[in-house]
Design goal:
The structure holds 2 protein chains of 2 kinds. By secondary structure, chain A is of the alpha/beta class. Chain A contains 6 helices and 10 strands. In chain A, 33% of the residues lie in helices and 28% in strands. In chain A, the strands form 2 sheets. In chain A, strands 6-7-8-3-9-10 form a 6-stranded mixed β-sheet, with helices on both faces. A 4-stranded antiparallel β-sheet of chain A has the order 2-1-4-5. In chain A, a hairpin with a 2-residue loop joins strand 1 and strand 2. Chain A is globular, with a radius of gyration of 17 Å. By secondary structure, chain B is of the alpha+beta class. Chain B has 25 helices and 20 strands. The chains are: A alpha/beta, B alpha+beta.
Chain lengths: 223, 789
C-alpha cells in the first residue's frame, strides 16, 4: 500500500518584492495511511507551507510531493483543484468559514464541491452532532464562538469523507477546553481509517499523535 | 501628521484604487469640461462673428430707404454704421432652383467674417459668378456641396421694369461660417447689374459704443414707423438674446445634461469602494481607534487619499482640456480645416478659467462627499470586536431565507444583502447608466410619436413658403398665393398664414426662447393648426398656443401669459386655444391679424401656406407645380416640402439624437464600468480570504466570478426602479433643455425604455469592465499568502 504523504527533497522559496525567503530547505518525510501525524515547530518554521503543499494549494520550488499515490507537485492548478475537492479536507487556523452561509450550509458546501452523493443535509447534521453543535445548524459564523466555528470547520473538512485531512494550527486561536475538544475530534477522525496530519506549535497537543515530525528553519530535524 | 502621511501613502500603496479613481475623474471632468468649454466658445464665436458682420443691431430695409435708416441709427448714437446690400433672386443650377441672396464680391466679407475660397478663382467680369455656401448646410437638401467651378447658373430677378434673367459661369466656390442674409448660400457677382440697383434689400448695421442694444432697438422700431421707413427685419445682437446662440446652446443640452449625470460617478466610487476598504482594513482601523484617533484624524486616513486621487485626476483632466480641447473643438464642430484655421486665427479658442475650474470643483466636491461615507463607516467601527475577530464583518446578519440552487449562489446573494454599501454603490452606478440609456429611449420615443402624428393624423400634405422678390410687391404675397390655392379642386383645405420670430422671456421663470408669432390670413386654420382644446383667437389680446408650449409653461385655457413682442415691449395674451402643428419646436403663438404685434405688414412680402390635398393627389407633383408654375413673376417660393420630407428630416434628427446619445451612453458605460470595477475589485480584495478558502476547498475561480456576476445581475434588478425614475427625470430635463432646438415634447415614462438594445450594449460594456477587474484580482490572488493571514 502506498503512503498517504511523501515529501522528497522539497524546497520552497517565496519572493516578496526583491526579497527571496527560503521557507523549506530540502524537506523529506513520509506519512503512512491511517495515521494521526503532528508536524511541530515554532512560528515561521515552515509547518503551514508543508500543509499547503500537501493540499496542493501551493507547489514546491524544487522537489516532489506525492499524496495518496499521486505526484501532485507537477500537476496544473485545475487538476490539483479537482483532485483536492475529493481527496482533501482542510482546517485552517482562523476557521475561515464562509460568513454568509449557516453552519449547516458551510458543511454541505464541501460535499457540494466534491459532488458527494446521498443526503447531504442529513450527513451535515450528523457531523454537526458529532462535533457537538446539534441545534446550532442555522447559526451564521458570526453568531458562533471561536471554538464553535472551528468545530464547524472540522465538520466541513470531514463532510465529503476525504482520505486525507490536513489541519493548519487548528487550535491556535482556541481556549484550552476547545483545544482539547478539537484534538480529540481529529483523533477520532483518524481512527476511522483516515490519515490526519496537523501542524501545531503547541507541545501539549502532540502527545496523542502516532507520529511527530519536528521542523525548524525549513528543515525536518526529527521524526 | 503621521496619520495624514499614512493616508497619503495609501494613494501610492493602493495603486489600483488610485488608478481607477483617477481614470474615472479624468473621464467625467474632461467630457463635462469639454462640453462646457465648447458651449462657451460656440456662443463666443457666434456672437463675435455676428458682431463683426452685423454689429450690435441691424435694420433690414428696402435699398431706397438705406440712407434714411443709416441716419436714423446715427441719430440714435451709433458709433459706426455700415450697409450691406443683397438682392433676392431665383437661382437655378442644373435641375435645382432655389431662392438666394445675390451679393457683390466686395460685400462677401461682411456676410461672413470667416470665409475662404475653396475651389476655382474669384469672379472677375460680367458673366462670371462665385457660389458661397455655409459649412454644415446639409439640412433639408439645402447643401450646395455638389456645385463646382465650370457649372452654369441662371439668375432670375424682378425689377419694376419686369423680370430679369441672366446666365453666369461659376468660377469659384467659397465656404464660410455664417449664413448669408439668413440663407445657407449666396451667389456672388463681381458687381451688381445696373438693372437691379435700387431694388435690393439693405442690412444697415450699427455698432454702439455705449447704450443698450435692446433699448435702442425699441426706439428704432418706433422712430422708423414714425418716419415711414418700411422695416423688413430688426435684429438685436447680444450674447443673451442672440437666437443662434440660444439654439446652439439648447442643442448642446442634448449632450451636456446626460453627460452631467456622469459626475455622480465621482461620488459613487469613493463612497462604495471606500466603505468596502474600511471593512477590509478593519483591524488597522480598530488599532487607530484604540490608540485614540479622532474622527478628524480618521478622515485624514479615509477621506484624504480619495481627495488626493480626485485632485490628481482633476489636474490631469484640466491639463488635457487645456492641451486638446481646441483641437477637438475645431475638428468636431467646424470640420472644414480652412474655415477652422481661419476661425482659430480670427477668434481663437478661449480656455475660460471659470468653465475649466467648474467641472474640476464639482468632481472634487463629489469625491469629497463620497469620501465622507467611508469616514462615517469608520467612525462606527466597534473596536473590541474588530480586534478580536479574524473575519470580515457583515453589516448585519443576512435573513435566513431558504434559497434554491448551489450554495455559492446563495452565499453571493446573502453577501450582497449583508454588505449594503456594495449593493448601494452598484445599484447607483447601474441606475445612472441605465437611466441615461432609458432617457434616450424616452426622448426618441417622444420624437417617434411626433413622426407618428405627422404620418397618421396631421392633415397637411404640402408646406410652401413664398416671398416677394420686389421690395414693394404690386399685390400682397398672401392674396396672390390664396388665389392660386383657393380655386384648385385638388386642394381639400389650406391654411395661409404669416409669421415673425423673436427672442422672448417666458413667463413664470421658464427662461428665454426663440418664438414664432403666427397669424392666419386666409383659409381654414384647422388644417395647419388643428385645435386640441378651445378656439382660435378672434381679437387682439387672445392667443392659441402649442399644447406642448402650454405643457412646458404649465398653463391651460383661460390663463394669461406675457411675452416679448416682435415690435418690442411685452404683450399680455389670454390663452384661448391649444393646438398641435408641424411647427413643433413647440414655441408658437397664434394671434389675430389685427393684434398689432408684427414688425411688417402681415402677408405683404411673405406668406406660408399649408395644404391638405384631396385623396389620390400626388403631393410631390403638386409641390413641384406650386414651386415652378403659376406664380406672379415677383413671387418666388422660399421652401416647398411635402409631409414625407418633414418626416424624413425628423427621422434624420431622431437618428442624430440617437447617435449623440449612444456616444454619451458609451462614455457613461465606461464610467459605470470603472466605478463598478473599482467597487468589485476593492470588495474582492477585502474578501480575499473567503475566496482563498473556497479555492482551497476545490472551488474554481469561475465560480467566484459567477458569484460576482450574480451580484451584478441582482444589483441590476434592484436598480430598475431607480433607473426608470432617473431616466424619466433625465429625459424630462433634456426635453426641456433642448426644447428650443429640437422642440418640446414631454417624454412618456415607459418600462419598455429599460429594454433597449443600446442599454444592453452599455450594460455589457460596464459589466465586462467590472468583471475584468475581478478576474484581475483573482489572477493576482496568492492563495497560500491569504490563507496564512
Amino acid at each position: 500500500m502506498t503512503a498517504a504523504l511523501e515529501f522528497d527533497n522539497v524546497w520552497k522559496t517565496y519572493k516578496t518584492g526583491k526579497i527571496e525567503e527560503e521557507v523549506l530547505r530540502g524537506v523529506s518525510f513520509t506519512v503512512e495511511r491511517g495515521t494521526f501525524t503532528a508536524i511541530v515547530g515554532p512560528s515561521g518554521s515552515g509547518k503551514s507551507t508543508i500543509i499547503f503543499l500537501a493540499a496542493g494549494i501551493d507547489t514546491p520550488t524544487k522537489g516532489t510531493v506525492r499524496v495518496l499515490g499521486e505526484e501532485i507537485s507537477g500537476k496544473g492548478e485545475s487538476w490539483r483543484r479537482k483532485w483536492r475537492r475529493r481527496n482533501i479536507g482542510i482546517v485552517f487556523q482562523f476557521f475561515h468559514l464562509v460568513p454568509t452561509l449557516t453552519a449547516l450550509e458551510n458543511v454541505i458546501l464541501s460535499m457540494e464541491l466534491a459532488g458527494t452523493p446521498g443526503d447531504r443535509k442529513a450527513r451535515a447534521r450528523e457531523l454537526l452532532e458529532f462535533v457537538g453543535l446539534g441545534g446550532k445548524e442555522d447559526k451564521y459564523p458570526s453568531e458562533l464562538s471561536g471554538g464553535e466555528q472551528q468545530r464547524v470547520a472540522l465538520a466541513r473538512a470531514l463532510a465529503h469523507n476525504p482520505p486525507l485531512v490536513l489541519a493548519d494550527e487548528p487550535t491556535a486561536n482556541l481556549d484550552y477546553e476547545n483545544k482539547v475538544r478539537v484534538v480529540k475530534l481529529l483523533r477520532e477522525a483518524a481512527s476511522e481509517g483516515r490519515t490526519v496530519v496537523f501542524a501545531t506549535h503547541d507541545p501539549e497537543l502532540v502527545q496523542g499523535a502516532d507520529r511527530i515530525i519536528r521542523v525548524l528553519d525549513g528543515r525536518v530535524v526529527e521524526e | 501628521m503621521n496619520i495624514a502621511r499614512a493616508g497619503l501613502r495609501l494613494v501610492y500603496k493602493k495603486k489600483l484604487e488610485t488608478i481607477v479613481l483617477i481614470i474615472l475623474v479624468v473621464l467625467v471632468v474632461f467630457q463635462h469640461g469639454f462640453l462646457e468649454l465648447t458651449r462657451y466658445n460656440v456662443g463666443y464665436h457666434i456672437y463675435g462673428q455676428l458682431r463683426d458682420e452685423m454689429g450690435d443691431l441691424a435694420l433690414i430695409v428696402p435699398e431706397a430707404k438705406a440712407g434714411e435708416a443709416a441716419s436714423l441709427l446715427e441719430d440714435l448714437g451709433a458709433s459706426r454704421v455700415e450697409a450691406s446690400t443683397f438682392y433676392l433672386v431665383k437661382l437655378s443650377i442644373g435641375n435645382k432652383t432655389m431662392l438666394a441672396p445675390l451679393i457683390a464680391l466686395d460685400e462677401l466679407g461682411r456676410f461672413s467674417a470667416v470665409a475662404a475660397l475653396k475651389a476655382g478663382s474669384p469672379p472677375q467680369g460680367p458673366g462670371e459668378a462665385g457660389i458661397y455656401t455655409v459649412v454644415a448646410s446639409g439640412a433639408r437638401g439645402m447643401s450646395l456641396d455638389w456645385v463646382e467651378p465650370g457649372m452654369e447658373a441662371v439668375i432670375q430677378a424682378y425689377t419694376p421694369r419686369g423680370p430679369l434673367s441672366m446666365s453666369v459661369n461659376i468660377t469659384g466656390v467659397y465656404k464660410g461660417f455664417s449664413w448669408a442674409a439668413g440663407y445657407p448660400y449666396a451667389i456672388v457677382l463681381p458687381s451688381i447689374p445696373e438693372a437691379l440697383v435700387g431694388q435690393g434689400v439693405v442690412v444697415v448695421s450699427a455698432w454702439l459704443d455705449t447704450g443698450d442694444p435692446e433699448a435702442t432697438a425699441e426706439r428704432l422700431a418706433s422712430l422708423a414707423k414714425e418716419r415711414g421707413i418700411p422695416v423688413y427685419g430688426l435684429l438685436v445682437n447680444t450674447p443673451e438674446r442672440n437666437p443662434i446662440i440660444m439654439l446652439v446652446k439648447s442643442a448642446f443640452n442634448l449632450l451636456s445634461i446626460p453627460a452631467s449625470i456622469m459626475l455622480a460617478f465621482a461620488f459613487i466610487l469613493p463612497a462604495a469602494a471606500g466603505t468596502v476598504s474600511v471593512f477590509r482594513d478593519l483591524r488597522s482601523l480598530a488599532v487607530l481607534r484604540a490608540m485614540g484617533a479622532s474622527i478628524a484624524e480618521l478622515s485624514l486616513y479615509y477621506t484624504l487619499p480619495w481627495l488626493a486621487r480626485g485632485l490628481i485626476g482633476s489636474i490631469i483632466a484640466a491639463v488635457l482640456l487645456a492641451l486638446y480641447s481646441d483641437d477637438i473643438y475645431f475638428k468636431v464642430f467646424v470640420g472644414d480645416s480652412d474655415i477652422a484655421r481661419a476661425m482659430a486665427e480670427a477668434y481663437g479658442f478661449k480656455l475660460d478659467p471659470a468653465t475649466l475650474l467648474r467641472a474640476s470643483i464639482i468632481a472634487l466636491a463629489m469625491v469629497l462627499a463620497g469620501g465622507l461615507v467611508p469616514l462615517a463607516a469608520a467612525s462606527r467601527v466597534r473596536v473590541v470586536e474588530a480586534l478580536r475577530s479574524g473575519e470580515l464583518p457583515l453589516a448585519w446578519i443576512p435573513p435566513r431565507i431558504p434559497l434554491p440552487g448551489p450554495l455559492q449562489l446563495r452565499s453571493s446573494l446573502r453577501d450582497l444583502a449583508a454588505r449594503w454599501w456594495k449593493l448601494a454603490g452598484m445599484v447607483l452606478a447601474l441606475g445612472l447608466l441605465w437611466g441615461v440609456s432609458a432617457a434616450l429611449e424616452m426622448e426618441t420615443g417622444s420624437l417617434d410619436s411626433i413622426i407618428g402624428f405627422l404620418e397618421d393624423e396631421y392633415p397637411v400634405d404640402v408646406y410652401a413658403g413664398f416671398i416677394s422678390l420686389a421690395p414693394q410687391p404690386p399685390e400682397p404675397v398672401y392674396s396672390a398665393i390664396g388665389e392660386i390655392v383657393a380655386g384648385d379642386p385638388r386642394v381639400q383645405g389650406y391654411t395661409l398664414y404669416y409669421s415673425e420670430s423673436t427672442v422672448t422671456d417666458l413667463p413664470r421663470g421658464h427662461g428665454r426662447v426663440f418664438m414664432t408669432y403666427i397669424t392666419v390670413l386666409q383659409g381654414d386654420p384647422r388644417v395647419g393648426f388643428p385645435l386640441e382644446e378651445g378656439r382660435y383667437p378672434q381679437q387682439p389680446g387672445e392667443a392659441a398656443i402649442s399644447k406642448y408650449m402650454a405643457a412646458y409653461l404649465g398653463v391651460s385655457l383661460g390663463d394669461r401669459i406675457t411675452l416679448d413682442s416682435p415690435v418690442g415691449g411685452r404683450v399680455e395674451l389670454e390663452v384661448v386655444g391649444l393646438s398641435v402643428s408641424m411647427l413643433n419646436n413647440g414655441f408658437y403663438v397664434i394671434v389675430a391679424p389685427d393684434s398689432g404685434i408684427f414688425q411688417a405688414e402681415p402677408g405683404l412680402r411673405e406668406a406660408i401656406v399649408m395644404i391638405d390635398l384631396e385623396d389620390g393627389v400626388d403631393p410631390e407633383g403638386y409641390a413641384r407645380e406650386l414651386k415652378e408654375a403659376g406664380l406672379p413673376p415677383y413671387i418666388t417660393a422660399t421652401q416647398v416640402f411635402i409631409r414625407e420630407d418633414l418626416v424624413d428630416s425628423l427621422r434624420t434628427m431622431t437618428s442624430m439624437v440617437r447617435v449623440f446619445y449612444s456616444g454619451i451612453a458609451l462614455l457613461t458605460a465606461l464610467a459605470a464600468g470603472i466605478a463598478l470595477g473599482g467597487i468589485l475589485m476593492v470588495d474582492a480584495s477585502a474578501r480575499a480570504r473567503e475566496h482563498g478558502v473556497l479555492l482551497a476547498m476545490g472551488s474554481g475561480r469561475i465560480h467566484i466570478l459567477l458569484g460576482y456576476l450574480i451580484q451584478a445581475l441582482a444589483s441590476l434588478a434592484t436598480a430598475a426602479p431607480l433607473a426608470l425614475a432617473l431616466g424619466y427625470v433625465t429625459a424630462l430635463a433634456t426635453a426641456r433643455g433642448t426644447a428650443l432646438a429640437l422642440g418640446y415634447v414631454p417624454p412618456t415614462p415607459s418600462v419598455g425604455a429599460l429594454a433597449s438594445s443600446l442599454l444592453w450594449g452599455s450594460l455589457l460594456v460596464s459589466l465586462a469592465i467590472a468583471l475584468a477587474a475581478v478576474v484581475l484580482h483573482l489572477r493576482r490572488l496568492r492563495l497560500s499568502e491569504v490563507l496564512r493571514e
